[in-house]
TrEMBL record, chain A:
UniProt protein name: Beta-adaptin appendage C-terminal subdomain domain-containing protein
Localization (cell): Endomembrane system
GO biological process, alphabetically ordered: intracellular protein transport; vesicle-mediated transport
Membrane topology: Peripheral membrane protein
Annotated Pfam families: Adaptin_N, B2-adapt-app_C
Domain Beta-adaptin appendage C-terminal subdomain: 646-758
Main location: membrane
Gene3D superfamilies in the record: Leucine-rich Repeat Variant, TATA-Binding Protein
Family note: Belongs to the adaptor complexes large subunit family.
From TrEMBL, chain B:
SUPFAM superfamilies the UniProt entry points to: Second domain of Mu2 adaptin subunit (ap50) of ap2 adaptor (SSF49447), SNARE-like (SSF64356)
High-level lineage: Eukaryota, Metazoa, Chordata, Craniata, Vertebrata
Protein's name according to its UniProt entry: MHD domain-containing protein
Keyword entries, A-Z: Coated pit, Membrane, Protein transport, Transport
Pfam assignment, any one: Clat_adaptor_s
Length: 773, 442
């Protein structure tokens, strides 16, 4: 953060650093240098001191050297010409008799990250790879990767690659692991480091010498090796067996991951490994570090997807302790629900019951939902608890209980009678919209069971007219009223009439108005017809079989195991996925787009695309990630996220001149006929509507002139879309140009435009209907 | 691999920032801080994503220790590494606080430089690191013998200065090269965390002990040390030795440097401790506690007048008469809408207050001798009280510390340094049990 008088500070430091008296006093000099680093960390720009700092690097004081190097690595990319001055000192240090100085200099030289450095780097690096001291070799090995990343486009130096492969046999374990890491980076384009049988066995034999960090990393590298025979496989696994129980969670998890991968065709081995991993997994859930607990819990949930009962005997370990943060408690509750069985159900329910009065409303509601889910199997006990909670008369509890009731009735029809009784005797009304919707659904669907239902509905309806509710609640209210009218017409008629009148005449939300109109017209067709349309199943017990415990094969989640994916917010991982899809632009989108591009113009590009779209390449939508590239395997959510990721924006604005220039330069990508907006639509209305969906209208001809023209543009992600609308008589032709091409954005744009037109048409007809009402 | 590592204070000040791969930029610190402060209580903050950068963080000593990465690594590795980094910082700086990190930033940069290169973890062992670390730690407060008397183990107020050297263990491991203050000390702590749920009928529903033996070593070099545990210690459900009341644990795990060749027969751990803090053994015991629970609570909750709840708590400490529980605090949830409370406590050093925000009352007892019984009466005014509101009272949760106690009964029989060890060395053994979660239903 910038401080007051930051320039003054820098000037003062400069003066002090160049003062010969300060330079002579070692401690004072070092003190000023650490001041510079302190300001640098705080965010002050001290790059102006580069010259002074370079001078300070020529010292015998190692602490000072380290500080200066830290400074240089931070600012070298800003001041490359000055950084070159430092190289001499660094190169001299690379030949120092002290291995620590050699290593330090070499590491920081590689860290400078500025262009034109490679020519100076090569010689000390090669010398470093053959250094006597393992410390220098470690640095040099990673230095090769750094050098490669400075010039990623250049040819890979095969002599360095060979040397690195040879260093895999180095006596120092860290050098070995660094070699793997460096090779992985250098050979990224060729699929990373090759783990063949001799290398794999060499690494396996070295496992015991490595420290825990290296162990887990080597285990991850070994994932890409496939043992040739079952015999070899079991040899490898028995060699690694001890690591399954490692006291370090990261080693134990990496080993488990390897077991699951290797033994993918031996289910018994997999199950055995999972069984033996319960101890380290449970231990990670009991550590003092909350973050580790959380990671452990998330991974336990993964394992439970295949083996729901694995942790059943340890259910008490998932009781929440009161000092734990909410996110851990929520996960523990989710796990508890899965672990319920005949023996522990009473204890688990009592535990969950005590969470229901938690201070945090979210936790209390989650506990109630959990009890609701257990109720699908152990209905009576849970219903007793849930009904008891209603008497607390607290808004958030009542709301959650009613929502739990709603789900319960749907899954277990046998509970209907008790739920109806509970609702009947509950005088408290939920205040949030989710709770209201659940209550309304129950009232509408089971009005026969709840004798007071019409009066409750009337009361809710009166409330609704007084205060503004969310459209979702209004829709549910309409449905409930109509359904109740079908079963108890006499008591509901009045309420329904008023409600319909209100929704059609005074409602501003289009969906609610349309729904009200729909019901009104449906009722006009007669009661029988309405019943036929509206009556559906009141419950679906078969669904609980589907959503209940089902054992997934290990293969479904093993690719995500021991990665960040299980820990991510659902929202985050979906976002990530859609970004990835956008970036890679899978071929599948072509095929989806192809039918849209029928009466296309005959630009060579387009025909090319059509040809490709019709080829069987299309089937590669699944995007099988390359085995080494873990980044793309984060999670495998469906493609439906594409729609959400697509987003239009009209800014930054485009001037008339720029538009014209682009329009002339680009070729028409796509033309299409759309439904014409109604004749009476003023262009201004169209403009306003398009603006709402972030499509900017640049120019249009006056209204009622034929042919009528308009020019639009919009941006999406990195592309710009230009459009001409040409209206002649009844047809509207849309021609689209785009730069650079992005099929996804184009498709999204077209559907947005189309729905904008449809809205416009609906608006008009709606107004007409409303007038005639 | 790690892109950046940074340490932030709880207010978002940048204390340490190091970029290993030049992939991210410094703005990501602010992005992280905005994201972490915007989260509500029950959203998991451990992993967060901004564009293609993932932030993994742990919170220790009131500071955020953050690593950012562009790849998808093992969360266990990163979280354990960050914990280890915080632990090392504590070892080297003496204590973990914003102040000590600020004062020792040069040292911490030096540590990071050796621990991570180009985003890859190189080492995290004190034995290796101590050869490379040159900067000396600045202690945030001068070490003084007078401090020992009243500040106790884990920051507790204790009266045990004659027995256990308290703050002595929180000093930098390497600060005293050549100074005479550098005592050759080694501390062996047996720490147990107790989590218990007691049902409303007084039956123990869950009891669970997580324990560990932790060594904090200030010896510059240490050859093999032998730690003798109770000989009658039995591990696992089946194995029982002799007829005497055996000390039993369910399972245990050891640090990889521990040699166990004498463990099976003599229960002796052999270890060469490196400087700093390390956990030698972790163990746990589920259900069937060998001793009585430290506290028994006899609560009664009644509706008094129209709008008042009477909560009468009788608390008995079942420790042996000579021992004491410290910092006992009892939290009782009260009905929503409680406005005020009056209390009758049995001694002036106890305090009680009503926390309307958490709708709970908090009763604190600084010292609770074994065998004693305390009672307290709370009258809570709740406008619009209904009989159902009484259901909201409870469950009671307690937190406390039991110095010189282990609930499993695990003891250290002896602590022997090998005869070749040069110089005078002080050996200290400390025991403490504290509550992880102690819940009593009403």
């Amino acid at each position: 953060m910038p401080y007051f008088g930051s320039e003054e500070t820098v000037k003062e430091l400069k003066r002090a650093l160049s003062n010969p008296n300060v330079q002579a006093d070692r401690l004072r000099y070092r003190d000023y240098i650490s001041k510079v680093i302190r300001y640098m960390t705080q965010g002050l720009d001290v790059s102006a001191l580069f010259m002074e700092m370079v001078k300070a690097s020529a010292t015998v004081d190692i602490v000072q050297k380290k500080l200066v190097y830290l400074y240089m690595c931070t600012y070298a990319s800003v001041k490359p010409e000055l950084a070159l001055l430092a190289i001499n000192t660094l190169r001299k240090d690379c030949a120092d008799p002290n291995p620590m100085v050699r290593g330090l200099a070499l590491r920081n030289m590689c860290n400078l990250r500025m262009p034109g450095l490679t020519e100076y780097l090569e010689q000390p690096l090669v010398a470093g790879l053959r250094d006597k001291a393992s410390y220098v070799r470690r640095v040099a090995v990673l230095g090769c990767a750094k050098m490669h990343s400075l010039q990623p486009s250049t040819e890979i130096d095969s002599s360095i690659v060979n040397e690195l492969y040879a260093l895999l046999r180095d006596p120092d374990p860290v050098v070995v692991v660094n070699c793997l890491r460096a090779l992985e980076e250098i050979l990224k384009d060729e699929g990373g480091v090759v783990i063949n049988k001799p290398i794999a066995h060499h690494l396996l034999n070295r496992m015991k010498d490595l420290d825990s960090w290296s162990q887990s990393e080597v285990l991850t590298f070994l994932l890409r090796y496939i043992p040739r025979s079952d015999e070899e496989l079991f040899d490898v696994l028995s060699l690694l067996d001890a690591f399954l129980q490692s006291p370090h969670a990261h080693v134990a998890m990496a080993t488990l991951c390897l077991f699951l991968h290797y033994a993918s065709s031996h289910t018994a081995v997999q199950n055995d490994a999972l069984q033996r991993s319960t101890a380290p997994l449970l231990a990670s859930c009991g550590t003092t570090s909350r973050e580790l607990r959380f990671a452990g819990l998330c991974h336990i949930r993964q394992v439970m997807r295949s083996q729901p009962s694995l942790f059943a005997s340890h259910y008490k370990r998932f009781f929440c302790s009161y000092s734990e943060p909410g996110y851990i408690k929520l996960h523990k509750m989710e796990i508890l629900v899965e672990l319920v069985n005949d023996e522990n159900v009473a204890l688990v329910l009592e535990e969950l019951r005590s969470y229901c009065t938690d201070v945090s409303p979210e936790l209390a509601q989650a506990a109630i939902t959990a009890i609701g889910r257990i109720a699908r199997t152990y209905t009576e006990k849970c219903l007793e608890i849930l009904t008891g909670l209603l008497s607390l008369k607290q808004d958030h509890i009542t709301s959650a209980v009613i929502q739990a009731f709603k789900d319960l009735v749907w899954f277990c029809p046998q509970s209907t009678a008790s739920v109806c009784n509970a609702i009947e005797s509950c005088t408290d009304r939920p205040q949030d919209s989710e709770g209201k919707r659940a209550l309304l659904w129950l009232l509408g669907e089971h009005s026969e069971g709840i004798s007071s239902a019409p009066y409750v509905l009337e009361e809710l309806c009166a409330d609704e007219l007084k205060t503004e509710w969310s459209p979702g609640v209004k829709l549910e209210l309409l449905t409930a009223a109509v359904k109740m009218f079908l079963s108890r017409p006499a008591e509901t008629q009045d309420t329904l009439g008023r409600l319909l009148h209100h929704c059609i005449e005074e409602e501003s939300d289009m969906c609610v108005r349309d729904r009200a109109l729909f019901y009104y017209r449906l009722l006009q067709r007669g009661i029988q017809e309405t019943k036929r349309v509206l009556s559906g199943p009141k419950s679906d017990p078969s669904l609980s079989m589907l959503t209940g415990r089902q054992e997934e094969p290990v293969i479904r989640w093993v690719s995500d195991f021991n990665t960040l994916a299980p820990l991510m917010n659902k929202h985050d991982s979906m976002l990530k996925e859609s970004e990835r899809l956008l970036a890679t632009q899978p071929m599948g989108v072509f095929s989806a787009l192809a039918p849209l591009m029928d009466n296309g113009t005959s630009s060579p590009l387009q025909t090319e695309r059509q040809r490709r779209a019709s080829e069987p390449v299309v089937t590669t939508t699944e995007n099988e990630p390359p085995p080494g590239d873990t980044d793309t395997t984060l999670s495998s959510h469906g493609k439906e996220d594409e729609e959400e990721a697509f987003c239009l924006s009209a800014s930054p604005p485009l001037s008339h001149e720029e538009f014209e220039k682009l329009w002339v330069e680009l070729q028409t990508l796509h033309t299409q006929n759309l439904l014409a907006p109604c004749a009476q639509t003023a262009p201004e209305t169209l403009q306003a509507i398009l603006q709402m969906v972030h499509i900017q209208t640049l120019a249009f001809t006056p209204a009622h002139t034929l042919p009528w023209r308009a020019f639009l543009y919009t941006r999406s992600a990195a592309t710009i879309i230009l459009t001409e609308i040409l209206q002649e008589e009844d047809t509207v032709q849309v021609s689209v140009k785009q730069y650079p091409e992005n099929k996804l954005a184009l498709r999204g744009f077209l559907s947005t435009l189309q729905s904008a037109f449809q809205t416009l048409n609906a608006e008009n007809t709606c107004e007409n209907v409303a007038l005639s009402f | 691999m790690i892109s950046q590592i940074f340490i932030l204070s709880s207010k978002g000040d940048h204390l340490i920032y190091k970029d290993f791969r030049g992939e991210g930029n410094k703005d990501s610190i602010n992005v992280f801080y905005e994201m972490v402060t915007a989260l509500s209580g029950d959203q998991p903050p451990v992993v967060m994503t901004h564009k293609d950068l993932h932030f993994i963080h742990v919170k220790q000593g009131g500071l955020y220790w953050v690593a950012s990465t562009k790849t998808n690594p093992s969360p266990f590795t990163l979280i354990e590494f960050l914990n280890r980094f915080a632990g090392l910082t504590k070892d080297y700086c003496g204590s973990l606080s914003e102040k000590s990190v600020r004062m020792n930033f040069a040292l911490i940069y030096e540590l990071l430089d050796e621990m991570v290169d180009y985003g890859y973890i190189q080492t995290a062992s004190t034995d290796i690191l101590k050869n490379f670390i040159q900067t000396e730690a600045v202690s945030s407060k001068p070490f003084s013998l007078f401090d020992l008397s009243n500040v106790g183990l884990f920051g507790a107020e204790t009266q045990q200065s004659k027995v256990a050297p308290s703050v002595a263990a929180s000093r930098p491991i390497m600060s005293n090269r050549g100074e005479q203050g550098g005592k050759n000390e080694i501390f062996v702590d047996v720490i147990e965390r107790l989590s218990v749920v007691i049902g409303s009928n007084g039956v123990i529903m869950k009891s669970d002990i997580q324990g560990e033996i932790r060594i904090k070593c200030f010896l510059p070099t240490c050859s093999e040390m032998r730690i003798g545990l109770n000989e009658e210690l039995s591990i696992g459900k089946s194995q029982l030795k002799g007829y005497s009341s055996a000390v039993r644990i369910d399972e245990c795990r050891f640090h990889q440097a521990v040699k166990l060749d004498e463990f099976d027969n003599f229960r002796i751990l052999k270890v060469c401790p490196s400087q700093g803090e390390q956990t030698v053994m972790q163990y746990q015991l589920c259900d069937e506690l060998p001793c009585a629970l430290p506290f028994q609570l006899f609560p009664s909750v009644e509706k008094d007048y129209v709008n008042r709840v009477l909560i009468f708590l009788k608390l008995r400490c079942d420790l042996p008469p000579k021992s004491t529980a410290l910092n006992v605090s009892i939290t009782v949830p009260v009905p929503k809408g409680s406005v005020s409370m009056s209390q009758e406590l049995s001694s002036p050093d106890q305090t009680a207050e009503l926390q309307t925000k958490n709708k709970a009352l908090l009763w604190e007892i600084p010292r609770f001798p074994g065998g004693a019984q305390l009672s307290a009466l709370f009258k809570v005014d709740v406008p619009g009280l209904s009989s159902a509101s009484l259901l909201e009272v409870g469950p009671v949760s307690m937190s406390f510390e039991l110095p010189k106690q282990t609930c499993t009964g695990l003891q250290i029989r002896f602590l022997r340094l090998s005869p070749t060890q040069t110089g005078l060395s002080h050996r200290w053994v400390r025991y403490v049990s504290h509550s992880d979660s102690y819940t009593i239903r009403i």
